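EI: anyone free to look at a 213-residue chain?
SC: sure, send it
EI:
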Amino acid sequence: MFCRKKIGRLISTSALWVILGTSAYGAAFEYTCNCGEDYKDWNIVYNGSRKCINSSDTACIASETTDSFVYRSSYEIDETGCSVCGCNESYYPFNALEWESDPNRTGVVRKPHYDFIGGYLEKSCTVIHYSYDFACARGFYMTYYDFDSSGGTSIGCARCPSIMDEYGSEAIGTSTEGNLDPITSCYLTPASLGTFYDIDGTYVLTGNCYYKE
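SC: here you go
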């Protein structure tokens, strides 16, 4: 005589698939969005999503800090982490950044340049300010632009030409702020020229007058 010990019952393969599949269905994917301390002012993902209430909530903000937030999705999004976070070049408010004077070079302006780290199907994004973009200030034009051996930018900007009439009145040329243009981008405005006198007569400028070589 022998005894059998009951160790369990058989489960059909279809039933097993249902049990395993149920645990994977709807699994949340969290994207860590390190977008900078001002992200609440401009980020469309953060401002367009509700806060997660329960651990099963998706399409919502799971957590946040002063410079980052975690976005929870119900599926793995087929985009870069920075695109999912709304922190890449398409969304970052570059136009809101203003040019500032370069402290070391006359006629040169700069604005912060950012890099967006978070590649294809990476569940994170980090925005890093690692350098500046340089250009010429208003009233200057670009004479050269090169990249030096250290990876920096070498730029030269010269003041736009001016003219002086027979009576010593000077009209100063100008240009657009943040330009990378040659001397032909410089121009005189009606306000800067006023009435101009020379040996040939009197002139009144009715529109912008651009420098011509």
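EI: The first helix runs from residue 13 to 24.
SC: 👍
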